[in-house]
Each structure stands twice: as structure tokens, then as C-alpha cells.
Amino acid sequence: MLKSEFLNGLDTSIRLLRLRGLKPSFSNICPQVECLTDRRFTCGHLAQLKFVLPEVIEIKKVLVKDERTSCLKPDLHVTINVDALESDGKAKSEGGGSMNLRKTFRKRLADISKSHPEDLKDLRHDFERAGTLKDARI
């Protein structure tokens, strides 16, 4: 599942940046997520992750000094607040917040896909018409 890979890459990237003492800005996160997933990571992907986990993924607009031009440029400060998830007490003993984050994400993504089956049918129809979907099942 591509969205789960993006979430894993985002979480890993933010952790690595924090260990290196760097700010988790979108311009720092994006190349790392792309390297981890072998896919392009855009603001649209980040927005989709935020839609599924709005209380966990925190995004703030910031101005960052560009070293080449000495000008301020807009960027996004991205953090993951695992503590925002409501846990049932046994989440800490089962692997901590990161494991609970992934389980919650998969559950919510499944709920969204079940509540909007017509979107999946339209998507399947578009792929079949384009000839890019053969015997695959969505």
C-alpha cells in the first residue's frame, strides 16, 4: 500500500532529522521519503496523509533562509504527534506509539475506502479506459 509506505517514510525521515539536529521541514523531508519509497513525494501526498490522520500530522507554514540567495522562502514544518492518538493502554506494551500509528492509519484508510466505494469504481474505470489496468483488482 503506497500511502502506508509514505507514512513510514515520513515517520522515519522526521526521526532521522531530529537525531541529526535538523528541522523537519518539507524540503528536508521530501528527498528522504523519495529515497525510502522510490517514489516522488509531493505536498499532495502530505495532504492525503494529513486527511487520514489530522490530529497526528502537524503542519506549520514557516519562512526559511535560503543560503544561496540570502532570502526567506516559504516552507512547511512537519511533525508527527503520536501522543495525539487515543491509546487503550496496551499500545505501549505492543511496540509503542509508532506501531499504534501504523495500525490506526491502516484502519482509517480501510474505513475511508469502505465509505467511498464509488470512488474506487470510478478509479478502476479510468484505469481500464486508459489501458493501464489489466487483470488487477482494486
Summary?
54% of the residues lie in helices and 13% in strands. The chain has five helices and two strands, in the order αααββαα.
Determine the oligomeric state from the structure: single chain
Q: What's the end-to-end separation, in Å? A: 11 Å
Count of the domains = 1
Q: How confident is the prediction overall: mean pLDDT?
A: 81
Low-confidence stretches: 130-138
SSE string, helix = H, strand = E? HHHEEHH
Notes on the structure:
- It is a single chain.
- By secondary structure, the chain is α+β, with helices and mostly antiparallel strands.
- The protein has one domain.
- 54% of the residues lie in helices and 13% in strands.
- The chain has helices at residues 2-20, 26-37, 43-52, 96-115, 117-130, and strands at 57-65, 72-80.
- A two-stranded antiparallel ribbon has the order 1-2.
- Helix 1 packs across helix 2 (26-37).
- The N and C termini lie close together (11 Å).
- InterPro entries: Cdt1 (IPR045173), CDT1_Gemini-bd-like (IPR014939), WH_DNA-bd_sf (IPR036390).
Write the layout of secondary structure elements.
Blueprint: H1 2-20, H2 26-37, H3 43-52, E1 57-65, E2 72-80, H4 96-115, H5 117-130
Helix pairs in contact: 1-2, 1-4
Q: Any key phrases for this structure?
A:
alpha+beta, 5 helices, globular, DNA binding, DNA polymerase binding, Cdt1, CDT1_Gemini-bd-like, WH_DNA-bd_sf
